[in-house]
Write a structure and sequence with these properties.
By secondary structure, the protein is mainly beta. It has strands at about 5, 25, 35, 40, 45-55, 65-70, 80, 85-90, 90-95, 100, 110, 115-120, 125, 130-140, 150-155, 160-165, 170-175.
Amino acid sequence: SESGNLYVSTYDYRNKSVSGPSLTYINNNESVINLAGNSFRTLNEGLANVTVSFAGNYKYEPCSRDVTFNVGKKPVTITVDTEELEIYVGQHHFLGPWVHEVSGALLNCSSNDTSVATVTEQGEVIAISRGIANLRIRFDGNDKYRPTEKYVIVNVIDFATHIEVDGEMELNITDFDLI
């Protein structure tokens, strides 16, 4: 749970600060936040609306303002060095995945086609055979942060060999099964 204070300022019609008005705080969802005066503590995920009111006096008219609390887990961002990767069969590439907001976050990495490319939990991509694979890097979340995921498209290509014969003829060979 988080705790803090609502910092409330009051102003008159000339936008000058009004000191010392008596304010009331009304919480419409006590299962989400606990409110004591202007101090609050979050209890559960959800929405709560707090109405801060000034009843008015001989000099100033009554007024109120609503504050919405959207209590939930914090979002995170997964970063990788590229979201589209072209790599040759047999090569390795490290994506360098990490979560900005969570030091040492454990990530789950997977490939939708392990016959084309695999990926380790540390984010190392291994190109197996020609084709396209979609990699998913996922953070499962914890008590403070939401789960999130990032996708990387991997295009695995064969090595191409370039040959010149007598400077007149070119062959592009993409298969190593030459006889």
